[in-house]
Design a protein that fits this description.
- Keywords: Oxidoreductase.
- This is SDR family NAD(P)-dependent oxidoreductase.
- By secondary structure, the chain is of the alpha/beta class.
- The chain has a single domain, classed as NAD(P)-binding Rossmann-like Domain (Rossmann fold, 3-Layer(aba) Sandwich).
- Helix content is about 45%, strand content about 15%.
- It contains eight helices and eight strands; from the N terminus they run βαβαβαβαβαβααββα.
- The protein has an eight-stranded mixed beta sheet, with helices on both faces.
- The longest helix is centred in the middle third of the chain and has 23 residues.
Length: about 280
Amino acid sequence: MRKIVLITGSTAGIGKETAVGIARQPGYLVVLHGRNAAKAQAAVQDVKRQSGNEAVEFILADFSSPTEVRQLAAAFTRRFGRLDVLINNLNRGIPTAEPLSAYGLETHFALNYLASYLLTYRLLPLLKQTPGARIINTTSVAYELARPDLDDLQSEQVPHRLHAYLNSTLFSLYFSLDLARELQPTGITVNTVGQGWGGLTGWLVGPLRKRLDGLASWFRVGSNASAQTSVYLATSPDVAAVTGTYFVGQKPRKLLAIAENRANRARLKAQTERILNALD
């Protein structure tokens, strides 16, 4: 029986590289996610061509809409009936898009954090049916620059979009660490991949980009290395029992104290649930 892998945000970039890497492994059916059917179909054909694996499909949803996230989870469950690996790959900087989604949510918060949170909990019943299921959440090493205000999740008090992006990377890490602890009794593993520039590249131009290039080589992780790390965590028997760990370049990396703040993590979860309940 093939193992089924769902990768969100996988019609381009690191998500697509990850899909190719997993599809090259024997015994995997890879499901891509995107919001544009033509782009998703083209990505499926490209992944098949690069991997030599015909077991590649796609599913559609606009993750700025919690309603569509819920619909995707229900449709995936009906269509596949099994899930071995969930890779929450969304980690995007959106400097030119509208600051608010159709639901009035700040776009980075909605796409990079809230959608993954909601999708994961909606798919947990399916994951719990699969022995050895794995969840991989991607974030960015940029979390180290986040300065969150847990009373201002939508970044209304500091309305700069970079501030919102950085906070979304930290919120994703909070979610991943708490989920790993919650699911430890079930045998489902939850690990996090710290991508490099990722969504931050759209913000870094001109002198600022050159300055960071010179001063912060530690901050850069190539897209190929990030994709390989996700492939490793999704498929390697070496990490079958590893959970609650933050990886950069296939190696565990110690987290900064800001990520270990359990009080902040608990407050984020409580407020997230209130937001989702209000959107039901």
